[in-house]
Amino acid sequence: MAQADTSGETDTDSYGRESPASDTDGEYSRRGFMEKAGTMSAAGATAGLAGCIGGDGTQGTGEGDFLWWTMRGYIPEETEAIQNAAEGFEDWADEEVNVTTNVVTWDQVFEEWTAAIQGQNTPNVSEMANEHAVDYGVSGVVQPNTELFEQYDDWYEVPSYWGDYDGEVWGFPWFIEVRSFYSNMGLLEDAGHDSPPETWEELIEMAMDVEDETGETGFVSGGAQDTGTGQVVYGITAQSGGDFFDRDGDEWSVELDSPTSLFAHLWMASFQEEWDIAPGGWAGMDSTDAEQLYREGNAAFMINSGDAANEMINEDEDVADRTELSLIPEGPMGTNTSFMGGSCLSAFEPEYAQHDVDDEISMSFIEYMTLPETMEEYLTEATPNFLPVRDAQEEIPPFTDNPTNIPDEWIDSRLEQAEDVARYGITGPEQNAPFLGDVEGATDAYSTAISGILGGGEDPREAVVAQANQVREGVDGEAGQEIEQNTDLPDLDDAPDELQPWIQGDGDTPQIWNP
């Protein structure tokens, strides 16, 4: 089954958590779905449910029982707030309901889903990503929620087609997250700058000044084979005018080895190979390592998840006072696009669910949990990583009144960034597909090429072609078409005109590394 990330990252994500995208031990493909599910033991099918907690603190075992799963178990206050909000559905629903919340970690949930499907004891509703929802929907396990989705017309752009496949919407967007741009203003001021960079050119200039004037690292993000690394690469690709997939009607194409994708990989590699603004050992650093370097005050700029900022505040770290969050610096196409993570809510088909409830109850629960008045009950504890998926949710505190100890500027920055996001596999084709989660998992969220370039000395052109062909192998046949392997290496001469100043080193634009 799909193993895409919802928020984050590799063996540990950019929050330091286990991630589905790199859960290779539990690798699960849709083609092997029924075969693997059929081999799961009854004991395995029930093992994940021992931690269920009803809204009243009891096991849910009576008439009207309703079970839902969430992966929001990493921050205790957030978990409790969401659980309490879910309990409120018992009063909101039109009939008797006894809500049970089961918290499952991302590194376990794929095996838990598989076992529960085989044992016909799935939750009624589960948090997942739309890549998972579409995959399960095509397998006949998850219900579409098209009618509920179409009741609203104020969706943000990417969430508006994130769950689309085969004429249905399979997952109801719950929240999105963004990769944030961090600036250590103390280091910047020591290097003679009084504001964060607004463009790629300024980013590189300021990072080099920091290196020269302070001896500290100019820029850091994940550099290893890591989901967070792949997310940064994809954001760079989107800002360069490219994408990882495209679609013409029903025909899908893989674009990971296009000239634009090659440029994005070379631009990122240039931090180490050309401009010397990345930390030593960068190729072995995951997103958690990058976060630690920044939090210790040893890096001027970082792209990472929002949790790093929250933890700085909560732990009263000095670097928090010096940190400014801003939009991702503007790329050559004039955009500030950041990678989008997030989650949706999906309802399992009744024949697979542990508790027999009417379909309308499951859809009502999804609606209830995503209403602005319900989200207000838990967004304070989930701030500001739970960002809106539609305009009406912008009116919820803390996006209006801020009751948290997180600076208003940080919340405003992330809310503004949420309007300019992209998601690999989704943005180019403007729809989802059942194979996307598997190919993301097989490539550690498309980080294999850049990690090979940075750490293995691979030829960049060959690395991006190898990664793209691995994806083509995963897509072949799944998209209802035959996708041939590529034998041609990309040529930067064919990259868009806007990228040529970086390729040639024209004017004030730094030249990228191009071996």
What order do the helices and strands come in, and which of them pair?
Layout: H1 33-39, H2 42-47, E1 53-54, E2 65-70, H3 76-87, H4 89-92, E3 98-103, H5 106-118, E4 125-128, H6 130-138, H7 146-149, H8 157-161, E5 164-165, E6 168-169, E7 172-178, E8 180-184, H9 185-190, H10 200-214, E9 217-220, H11 227-239, E10 245-248, E11 251-254, H12 259-273, H13 287-295, E12 299-304, H14 307-314, H15 318-322, E13 323-326, E14 338-347, H16 359-370, H17 372-375, H18 408-417, E15 421-422, H19 436-442, H20 448-456, H21 460-475, H22 500-504
Parallel strand pairs: 2-3, 2-4, 9-12, 14-15
Antiparallel strand pairs: 1-3, 4-14, 5-6, 7-14, 8-12, 8-13, 10-11
* Derived structural class: alpha/beta
Can you tell me the overall shape?
globular
Helix content: 25-40%
Oligomer: single chain
Tally of helical segments: 22
Largest sheet: 7 strands, mixed
Radius of gyration: 22 Å
Give the total of beta strands: 15
Q: Kindly report the CATH topology of the largest domain.
A: D-Maltodextrin-Binding Protein, domain 2
Reading off the top of the CATH hierarchy, the class of the largest domain is best stated as Alpha Beta
Weakly predicted, low-confidence segments: 1-60
CATH architectural label of the largest domain? 3-Layer(aba) Sandwich
Average pLDDT, all residues? 89
Task: Write down the domain tally.
Answer: 2
Which band does the percent of strand residues land in?
A: 5-15%
Distance between the termini: 38 Å
CATH superfamily descriptor of the largest domain: Periplasmic binding protein-like II
Notable traits:
alpha/beta, D-Maltodextrin-Binding Protein, domain 2, seven-stranded mixed sheet, transport
